[in-house]
């Protein structure tokens, strides 16, 4: 891992959300031309800032895979319908239709969540690369779980530390608003329910974050009525307040990556009759939350 001091001097970094300490934009870096030491400095900056933006990139699929291998081990996708030919770790998000068939998943990721929260080891990072961008709409919003946790009174933090969340992929897929589907027996077998903490500790430096999610949670364990999800709704509403949220307005060539260990995110809708949106999504393997 790159030395933190060297990271700050080697990269031109600007805040994503000025005044908040959340997120960073690395300015003037061409990922395709960067050497391994520079890419390691980028990874170090990512681990410390929660989200990272690099604009103006020109990356083919092989270039995306080269970069993600510096971040960590690529994670595969539960649904294989829209993975890129020859690159199974790259998932296409798009409303474009070619030869009568969609080339990607449309309106995927709408609703505040963290990716793969229904897995024993949720993905550490999500990376989106913008190929086609609407002139309006389709923004991506990121919520800072560390700032939200720190804004809570100490006694509230202590109470929340005792709670665990029951996540279910089957519940998520069979009740979601967009891309709803009934799972096959094999998908159910391969994605058993899991229990994760509501407050998550970041392995890089021990910072704590609120770590709720919507869609996958069926119970809050540790409260009198585990099936009462009103506390979850309250915490998501708090964490996604304007003071904790960065709104990203996409440009072609943007590479935006965020840390699923300490954030929530959501996509937003756009006029899909008027505009085309195509993104390449990649995931990095994570570890068991604690």
From TrEMBL:
Q: Has UniProt tagged this entry with the keyword Membrane?
A: no
Question: What positions belong to coiled-coil segments?
Answer: none
Phylogenetic placement of the source organism: Bacteria, Pseudomonadati, Pseudomonadota, Alphaproteobacteria, Acetobacterales
Species for this entry: Nguyenibacter vanlangensis
The keyword Protein biosynthesis belongs to this UniProt entry's keyword annotation = no
Q: Which domain of life is it from?
A: Bacteria
Q: Which family does it belong to?
A: Belongs to the TfdA dioxygenase family.
- Alphabetized UniProt keyword annotations: Dioxygenase, Iron, Metal-binding, Oxidoreductase
Q: What is its EC number?
A: 1.14.11.-
Q: What is this protein called?
A: TauD/TfdA family dioxygenase
Per UniProt, residues of the TauD/TfdA-like domain are 13-283
Q: Which InterPro entries match?
A: AtsK-like, TauD-like_sf, TauD/TfdA-like
Give an example GO molecular function. Answer: dioxygenase activity
């Amino acid at each position: 891992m790159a030395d933190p001091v060297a990271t700050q001097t080697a990269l031109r970094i600007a805040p994503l959300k000025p005044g908040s300490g959340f997120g960073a934009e690395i300015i003037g870096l061409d990922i395709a031309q960067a050497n391994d030491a520079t890419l390691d400095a980028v990874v170090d900056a990512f681990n410390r800032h929660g989200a990272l933006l690099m604009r103006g990139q020109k990356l083919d699929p092989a270039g995306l895979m080269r970069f993600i291998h510096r971040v960590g081990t690529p994670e595969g996708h539960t649904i294989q319908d829209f993975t890129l030919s020859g690159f199974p770790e790259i998932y296409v998000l798009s409303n474009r239709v070619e030869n009568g068939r969609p080339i990607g998943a449309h309106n995927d990721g709408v609703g505040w969540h963290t990716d793969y929260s229904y897995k024993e080891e949720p993905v550490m990072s999500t990376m989106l690369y913008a190929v086609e961008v609407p002139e309006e709409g389709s923004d991506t919003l990121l919520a800072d779980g560390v700032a939200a946790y720190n804004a809570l009174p100490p006694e509230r933090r202590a109470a929340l530390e005792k709670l665990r969340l029951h996540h279910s992929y089957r519940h998520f897929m069979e009740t979601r608003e967009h891309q709803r589907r009934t799972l096959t027996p094999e998908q159910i077998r391969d994605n058993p329910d899991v229990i994760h903490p509501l407050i998550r500790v970041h392995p890089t430096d021990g910072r704590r974050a609120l770590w709720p999610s919507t869609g996958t949670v069926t119970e809050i364990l540790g409260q009198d009525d585990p099936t009462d999800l009103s506390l979850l709704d309250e915490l998501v509403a708090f964490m996604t307040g304007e003071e904790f949220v960065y709104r990203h307005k996409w440009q072609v060539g943007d590479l935006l990556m965020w840390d699923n260990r300490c954030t929530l995110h959501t996509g937003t809708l756009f006029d899909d009759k008027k505009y085309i949106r195509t993104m390449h999504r990649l995931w990095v393997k994570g570890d068991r939350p604690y």
